[in-house]
Structure formats: structure tokens, C-alpha cells
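Archive entry. Fields below.
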Amino acid sequence: MLGRVKLLLENQLCFEVHATARALDGVYRALLRDLGLTYPQYLAMMVLWEREPVTVKELGTALRLDSGTLSPLLKRMEAAGLVRRERSAADERSVLVRLTPAGAGLRSRAEEVPEKIYAATGLGLEELVALKATLRRMTASLDEAVLA
Amino acid sequence: MLGRVKLLLENQLCFEVHATARALDGVYRALLRDLGLTYPQYLAMMVLWEREPVTVKELGTALRLDSGTLSPLLKRMEAAGLVRRERSAADERSVLVRLTPAGAGLRSRAEEVPEKIYAATGLGLEELVALKATLRRMTASLDEAVLA
DNA sequence: GACAACTAAATTGTGCACAATCTAGTTACG
DNA sequence: CGTAACTAGATTGTGCACAATTTAGTTGTC
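PREDICTED_STRUCTURE:
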């Protein structure tokens, strides 16, 4: 029956999403090793290379991560000399994250990463656009479902 | 230029894949709480409900996880009374994982999960099929890339 | 039969990810 | 004002995920 077909497909999809996420992680891991960055750290750096300073809250919104993940992550990045953190003078609850010169300098070395990732996916531009759109729609739907 | 367009799209895709994976995780987390299972544990149970016993190695192949992840995961599941583990008599290097009656009994309660997930994705059947195919192709390409 | 090469799990150490809780600072309302 | 409600981060505890190493068992070759 149709029901059973649906369920099998759903299961395979979920395996597939996780397999893809881990495969992507593996490629990033290999590419970022030389830079001394993990994939989540690289994502954080991409936000910082774009605009700076950002609060932990803003970073969390951009990356969909909470302080329980970001606090230790940023501490490791601070220990590595990539960023520094300071309380906002305007609102002492907030912590502003800034790049150090070393962190800013890493940008040029990281510039080749996206193209390599793009090549590794083996997808064409239109496929990438379509995939992104589908995932975005699905994510929005999943977010809605988890609230209800 | 085209190059820059590619890079932006690649970046957005990577954020998107991670956002999707976490959103999916969130829905599973909510659905599986009553069953006392995490999402990875649920995936392991799905394999076991299908065929049993399986070795840790076979489970790792099916789930794309290594013993460093599976050993503690299976210990927690054993502590929860869902599975038991025993050395294979035929090959003493292997550990066979079997369901306990409690673990087997959980299946009926878990049967409604896939349909709820399917509904939560908000995707139609054809979309799901297409998405799965794209992800599978991309994952294979990524796996290939990480070796080179 | 002995020894090298291989395989399966487990272990150790590092780094996410999130729930729950805590502290400190801010805002709103009476 | 002054206190209640809210917000930002940090902390604690649990559970993946993987690299690297270790231990135990198996297989292949001479």
C-alpha cells in the first residue's frame, strides 16, 4: 500500500540526510585541518569575516546554535588566538566577539575552501539551487512541526 | 562573476544542510522522548527490528558509524534493557547484538514515528524521492572526494 | 606450526549539540 | 522608585562522532 511506501521512503531519507551531513563534515574536516579549524568553527569564522563585531546571540541566530555550544567553542577559538571576546559597554549582558589579526588573516587561506567543496559535491549550479530550496522548505516545515 | 555566485551558493547550501540535519534531529528528539530513545539509538533499533542478530561491524556499515561511537551507544542501550551483546562463537572478534523482549516490544510503539516525520517534512512523495536521489549522489561524490 | 598481516571491538581524548539551570544585567509596570 | 518579567551568557550533565591507539582473535604464507 501507499502508506508503507511512504514510510520506507521516509526512513531512507533520514538515513540519507545524516549520511550526507557526515560526508560533508568529512570533506570539511580534511580541508580545514591545515587551517586548524573545525567545521563549526569555520562557520563561525565565515560570519565574523562578513561582519564584526557580533554578539554571541547574533552568532547563535546565524548558526542556529545556543550558548551551551557557542561558549566553549568561542573559548577554544580564543585560546587558538583567532578571536577575542569582551563585554559590550552598551549592554553588559552581551559579549562582543571580534577577530584578532591572526583570525582576520586566516581569511585569505580559507578562500579556496568553498570552491573545493562545491567541486566535491559533484552537483551543477541549478541542482544546488534546487536542493537548497527544497532543504529550506523542509527545514521550515520541520521547525513548525516541532512547536506543535 | 560566476565564481563568486558558486561560492555564495555553496556556503548557503552548507548552512542549509546543517540546519536541516538539526531540525530533523529536533523533531525526532520530541517524538522519541516518550520511547526513551535518542535519534541514533532509534536508527540502530530500526536495523535490529529488520534483522537480528547483527554484529557491531554490520551496524556500523548500515549507520556509517564506527566502534568509537557504537560501543558506548550500545552499552547505554544495554543498560536501558533494549539489547544484549554477546561474543560470536563462530568468530570471537565479533560481538552479536540482539534485541531483548523489551527492545522488540518497543517496535509497535515506534511504528507511528515514520509517518509523523513524513508529515513534518511537508514534502510530497515525488519531492522526497528526488531529494533522496540528489543527496545520495552528492554523498557518493563527497565520499569520493575525501579519499583523493 | 610460526609469524606477519589483517580484522573486530573497545578505549582515550577532543569537540560539537542541547536541555536545564544559574548569574548578572536590563526593561516595564505599578 | 522598586520589583517582576525578561534577556544574554555561562555552566553542568548527557549523548553523539571521530581520530588514534590498544587488545584480542583470525587468516595467509612459508
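CURATOR_NOTE: Chain A touches chain B through 57 residues (CB under 8 Å).
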